Amino acid sequence: MGLGHFIKKKRIFFTRLFIAAVGVLILFSGSRWEAFDVYGTFLFAVGVFMVGVATVGRLWCNLYICGYKSGKLIIAGPYSMCRNPLYFFSLIGAIGLGLTTETISIAVLFLAVFSVYYPFVIRVEEKRLSKIHGAEYEQYRKEVPGFIPSLRRFHEPDEYVVRAKVFRKSLFDAMWFVWLIGIMEVIEVLHEAKILPVYINLY
Q1: Could you tell me where the DSSP H helices lie in the chain?
Q2: Which domains, and CATH codes, for the chain?
Q3: Taking burial as the number of CB atoms within 10 A of a residue's CB, which of 37, 45, 120, 146 is the most buried?
Q4: Burial class (CB in 10 A: 0-12, 13-18, 19+), 172
Q5: How far is CA 52 from CA 49, 111, 112, 176, 182, in A?
């Protein structure tokens, strides 16, 4: 088993471990930008906007792949612009979530970990899709960018059959970014009320 396969297999474990570590950091850290109201508010507003884009984007992606993820090669809608739009929107959401802490440090941390971790996951998934779909996927890989969307390639069908039960379950997966913003605000209130101590201030 290669490193990529190991990371792919343990992805949920590593993700939860990372979230727990960052959660502890956020619980006991504050923002140096809070001394400058305009900057802190700006970072938060940009973060909320990015989380909004990510949430809508992830819902859009899930609409296309729910119930079809392995059995059918999806090449329309968001998947006509890049091969990994779900991860693209996830990265936007992660950076946005980092900015809602009113720090740049957490956003950069999310970006760094994503840049190191997810290329392995994507590589393993693309090998699996190549085995399943063969020449069709190889042609798709040649024509469509891997990660950065190309708007000029966008196309979508007039109608698309959605598996409602599967899509309904995926709604909760797409919304967790929004819920985490609420948690960030609760943590900030606890800091201001001196209920949670702040041991370090981040930029």
Answers
A1: 3-9, 11-27, 37-65, 85-99, 105-133, 135-143, 164-192
A2: 38-193 (1.20.120)
A3: 120
A4: exposed
A5: 5, 18, 21, 11, 13
Contact 50, 96 (CB under 8 A): yes
Helix (H, G, I), strand (E, B), or coil: what is residue 148? Answer: coil
Residues found in the chain: 203
CB contact at 8 A, 55 and 175: yes
111's tokens: 């970006």
- Averages of pLDDT over runs of 10 residues in the chain (203 residues) are 58 80 91 82 95 94 79 91 95 95 94 91 90 93 94 91 80 82 91 91 90
Contact, 84 vs 64, CB < 8 A? no
pTM across the whole model: 0.87
End-to-end CA distance of the chain: 40
